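Sharing a chain and its predicted structure for anyone who wants a worked example. Both blocks are below, sequence first, tokens second.
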Amino acid sequence: MVIFSGQYVNNSKSSFFAMDNSSRFVTKIQCILLTDKVKLKLASWKGKSLSMMGRIQCVNTVTTGFLAYNFNLYKWHVSLLKQVKEWSQIFIWTSDIMKKRHNYR
């Protein structure tokens, strides 16, 4: 298949999903898998010499790039959103999401 730009779609790397409105309500287990991806992405930057602004940029990249798309597809549970927010705050302040949470407000 040729796109107007002259580039070709790689069928082995592409997929198409059609959804109806009822599929917006997915189980909490499916959303947990997505939050685990966020946690792994943040954990992969552990130990990097990033300034606080660099850590904020990393969090913004993950949340806007990955989660914003999924927010349009799935109805997320509040507890999972709070968990992602907590991981983001911990990463920004300590650069290690595995550390115990302190009051970061």
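Comments welcome. The chain is about 55% helix and 0% strand.
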